Amino acid sequence: MKNTAIDPATPATPATDTSPSERSATPATEYAADYAIFKPNSRGNGGMVRFGLNAAKAALFVNAAVQTGEKQFDWDNRITMKWGLADVGQVLATLQGRQPQAKLFHQTERANSAFELTFRDDPERAPYAVSISRQDASDKSVRKVAIPLTHGEAAVLEAALRCAVCRLVGW
Fold first, then answer.
1. % helix, strand, coil for the chain, step of 5
2. What are the extents of the domains in the chain?
3. How far is it, in rounded angstroms, from Cα 153 to Cα 162?
4. 115 vs 91: CA distance, rounded Å
5. Which fold has domain 4-169?
6. What is the tens place of the pLDDT at every residue in 27-54?
7. What pLDDT, in 10s, does the model give residues 114-138?
8. Nearest in space to 32 (alpha carbons), one of 19, 57, 9, 15
9. What is the Cα–Cα distance from 168 to 163, expressed in whole angstroms?
10. Which residues are within 8 A (CB) of 114 and not within 5 positions of it... i.e. 6 or more apart?
């Protein structure tokens, strides 16, 4: 397992698995729209989740990685989900207080992926909890990343997702 240091100050890279040739052929406004939430902790079991718009693929890609050291995340074994408009709408509805929870489930031949965003009305805890998991079909192994979200992080995520909807719809 290779550990990759991810520095929040480092400029965003494409949010998806695009090749260098695709990146150079695509204007920066088409792919470098990322919002990353880093949650390392002293126990070493934190995580990070990155939301990236890929207008060329008409989708939002959500990547998550577990913490493996101080400010180190296992990017090589990241979990990736590709969201369409319906998925973005479910998460936005939760962030806007229209529903208490968004649960997304994607099933393919290779794996099942799940994303959950939950509002928590507990003043002792962060107001939102995010979890993303993937179960590989071949060996049934499960990887999971769970992080808390502050009100500020949730507000930025909501604003980013609202912009993503406009870009995906073409408005």
1. 25, 40, 35
2. 4-169
3. 14
4. 9
5. Transcriptional Co-activator pc4; Chain A (2.30.31)
6. 444 445 699 999 999 999 999 999 999 9
7. 999 999 999 999 999 999 999 999 9
8. 15
9. 9
10. 103, 104, 105, 106, 131, 132, 133, 134
